């Protein structure tokens, strides 16, 4: 991520953040953001660990579908265990002027962070396709969406994300274009899936209501549609949280190409990265808030843990 320095040259984020050129005078702000990242790290680990344990008790989701949610929770846990603590150390190294440590950490955080964030984005797109197949396949859903196929999808998301992130060590621009392409494809896939879902739901609801007086089975159809609609809205909330958390980062990275570096730009950038990490903490909260069965399973898990 190169930044326009205003004198006709461009320096990478690593060069600017790991030097006194741009970091002097903002140590207090960086320490506050460091503490915030530590808190987010702890809550992400605890929250997503509870979700992983609770998913074993959720019967409303098809087993392969739960695998996608487990994959998403796993990436959030890895963010909390690896990336967020190292990012906090990175901020602390800036305040202490440990520039060599700073440079090594920012390289590692960037590569692994790209990989984990890529897996999250690809997994959310896969979940949207899964929900679409659940609607279109009907009774054949369990034959179409098998555990083997979902495992292949999960492995593929890790390969695609890892290849793109490792390219950062070779050429940063390749990773940036790679990431933009993947994000665009995921957004298009999700938009198409949810548009198709809501159009199909609307059509099915109109049909069921038109037959409700003649066929009592239509009551069952409407009930199943209502349950399915709730799961779709729950996934949409998680998707919306991801977009909101990633949007500041995308905006700041765009501004870097047109704005001269400053202390304020550095703080805004660090805050935008923190917002990306915040998504790992928000996901478990949204699961518990929007999915009743997950909320009940989490409560049971907490009771069992305290009982032990």
Care to describe what's here?
This protein is mainly alpha-helical and 308 residues long. The protein is built from 11 helices and 2 strands; from the N terminus they run E-E-H-H-H-H-H-H-H-H-H-H-H. The protein has a two-stranded antiparallel sheet. A hairpin with a 5-residue loop joins strand 1 and strand 2. Helix 7 packs antiparallel against helix 8, helix 8 runs antiparallel to helix 9 and helix 10 packs across helix 11. The radius of gyration is 22 Å and the shape is globular. 32% of the residues are buried.
How big a fraction of the residues is strand?
Answer: under 5%
Mean pLDDT: 82
The strand order across the widest sheet is 1-2
Low-confidence residue ranges: 4-9
Radius of gyration: 22 Å
How many beta-strand segments? 2
Name the overall outline.
Answer: globular
SSE class: mainly alpha
- Specify the number of helices: 11
Order of helices and strands: EEHHHHHHHHHHH
Note the gap between the termini: 49 Å
How much helicity do the residues have?
over 70%
Largest sheet: 2 strands, antiparallel
Brief account:
This protein is an all-alpha fold and 308 residues long. It has eleven helices and two strands, in the order ββααααααααααα.
SSE diagram, text form:
Layout: E1 2-4, E2 10-12, H1 13-17, H2 20-23, H3 27-55, H4 63-96, H5 99-137, H6 141-144, H7 147-166, H8 172-211, H9 217-256, H10 263-290, H11 292-307
Antiparallel strand pairs: 1-2
Helix pairs in contact: 3-4, 3-10, 3-11, 4-5, 4-7, 4-10, 5-7, 5-8, 5-9, 7-8, 8-9, 9-10, 10-11
């Amino acid at each position: 991520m190169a930044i326009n320095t205003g004198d006709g040259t461009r320096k990478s984020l690593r060069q600017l953040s790991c030097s006194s050129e741009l970091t002097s005078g903002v140590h207090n702000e960086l320490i506050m953001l460091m503490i915030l990242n530590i808190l987010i790290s702890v809550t992400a680990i605890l929250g997503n660990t509870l979700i992983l344990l609770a998913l074993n008790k959720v019967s409303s989701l098809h087993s392969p579908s739960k695998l996608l949610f487990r994959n998403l929770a796993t990436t959030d846990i890895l963010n909390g265990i690896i990336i967020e603590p190292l990012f906090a150390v990175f901020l602390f190294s800036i305040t202490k002027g440990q520039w060599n440590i700073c440079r090594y950490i920012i390289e590692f955080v960037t590569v692994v962070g790209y990989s984990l964030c890529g897996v999250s984005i690809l997994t959310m797109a896969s979940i949207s396709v899964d929900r679409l197949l659940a609607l279109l396949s009907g009774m054949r859903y369990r034959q179409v969406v098998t555990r083997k196929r979902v495992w292949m999808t999960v492995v593929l998301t890790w390969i695609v994300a890892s290849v793109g992130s490792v390219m950062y060590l070779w050429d940063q621009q390749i990773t940036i274009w790679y990431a933009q392409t993947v994000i665009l494809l995921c957004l298009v896939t999700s938009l198409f899936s949810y548009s198709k879902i809501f159009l199909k739901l609307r059509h099915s609801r109109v049909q069921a209501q038109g037959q409700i007086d003649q066929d009592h089975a239509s009551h069952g159809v409407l009930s199943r549609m209502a349950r399915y609609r709730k799961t779709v809205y729950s996934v949409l909330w998680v998707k919306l949280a991801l977009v909101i958390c990633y949007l500041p980062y995308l905006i700041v990275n765009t501004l870097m190409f047109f704005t001269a570096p400053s202390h304020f730009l550095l703080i805004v950038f660090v805050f935008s990265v923190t917002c990306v990490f915040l998504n790992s903490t928000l996901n478990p909260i949204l699961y518990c808030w929007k999915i009743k069965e997950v909320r009940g399973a989490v409560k049971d898990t907490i009771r069992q843990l305290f009982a032990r």
